[in-house]
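Sample entry follows:

_____
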Amino acid sequence: MKPVHIILSSMLCAAFSAGAVLAAPTVLERFSKFTSESKLAVLNLNEVVEANEAALAAGDLRDEELMLEAKRFALNLQSEIKALQMDCSCTLLVSSAVIAPHTLPDYTDELLARLNLSHAKKQTDLRRISERIRGAS
């Protein structure tokens, strides 16, 4: 590198560093304000999807009907998550991706209810599937 380029790159680095130092308090203040004003909550999407899969498998649907139901579920899931976020005024996170020192509110049961699913219904559907398999063998 030519000496002029070294001097210019050093000046540019110094300017960026000074900008970062000056901006840091503002960034930290905004982040702190965001985290204190924003409410965070979690959803166990695996549980929701498994409950839907159990409901579909327990039914006597043909392949075409299964495809239609899967599409319907995906659309309903998306719209219900958006509605749930609006109702709770919170940001919903996938529970398996959250590592937090404290417990966040869990809206899984609320989402299951909005989709006409539940833990109890899932267990009933799984028993029906198991009985069907045992009866077929």
In short: DSSP finds five helices and two strands in the chain. Residues 11 and 17 are 10 Å apart (CA to CA). Strands lie at 39-43, 90-94. The first helix runs from residue 3 to 37.
